[in-house]
Structures are given as structure tokens and as C-alpha cells.
Amino acid sequence: MDKTDFIARFAGEGGQGVVTSAEGLAMANAQVGYHVKTFSTFPSQIRGGPVWTQTRISTEPVLSSGDDLDVLVAFNEYAYNTHKDEVREGGVIIFDSGSFDLETDGNSFGMPFDELARSTGNARAANMVVMGALAYLSGMRQEVLEQFVVKRFTRGRPGDEQIIESNIKALTLGPERRRRTA
Questions:
Q1: Can you give the CATH number for the domain in which 75 is found?
Q2: Over the chain, what is the mean pLDDT?
């Protein structure tokens, strides 16, 4: 990671992988020695209600989840509209272009999360697509996320290898798409 203190917020609705994305990013970075802190909201409602999770990653111990966002990952338009004003100047917004569209302004990057996930053979890998794009934009080493995937999905079950392979492929799709549009 190029920065010494990095704050990312994932926002969308329950069931979209918002919490899993943030926790995965935190766990991957903790595994390699960074200090992390997460904060999640879980409003009292059924699946599909608004939810957001924030992850702070630092080279120094952190005591709070932080304020101004370096990255906002918006899984839907409501999340974008609700959280866009908390992105610091020079920050980045990653959004699900399969769900809504934004004017390109140099600080936003859209990609169809679910469509890219399905292309791996694992429709549940949208959060890995997002984590890969975020890692690319923040200068995080891809190996950090790949090590996390291997550790997380090695459970001694039939099919673990296929799940690991599809999730690692999903991690590469965000950066590949970004390189093609940059």
C-alpha cells in the first residue's frame, strides 16, 4: 500500500456482500501485518435494507474507524447518494455500473460487479471483484488478497480448489477492467 493510513467504505444493501468485502479487505491486510479497524452498521430490517461497513488500514495502531474516505465502494445508487460527500478530495468512488451509472470525472470507476463475478463461474464473487479493483487503485499487492483467499477457502471440502480459483480470478477482473479504461 502506498499510503500509511487508508479508509474505505463499502455501502449497499443487505445481501450484496458489503460486509464481506470490508471484512475480507481488513483480514487480508491484518494477515500481512497492517493494523486494521472495521465499523459496520446493521439497521434493524430484513435483508435488502441499507448497510455500510468501513475499513481503516494503517501502518500504525488505529483507535477509530476514521473520517474522510479514500475510497467509497457503492453497490447501488442509494449508497452512492448517501455517502459520496464523505469522500475526501482526491478520493475514489468505485460503483456498480450494472446497477447505475455516473458521469466519469476521473475520480469514479464503474464496473458491473455481478456480471464480472458470473464470468468466473462463481456468481457470489462480486465482493472479490471489488476487492481486486480496490487493491489495484490503492497500490496494494495482489498477493495479499490471494493469500487471504487461499486461507479463507481452504476448508478441507470437495470443491475448495474451484472456489479458490474462481475467487482469485475475480480478484484480477477489477484491475484488468481498470487498465482497459484508464
A1: 3.40.920.10
A2: 87
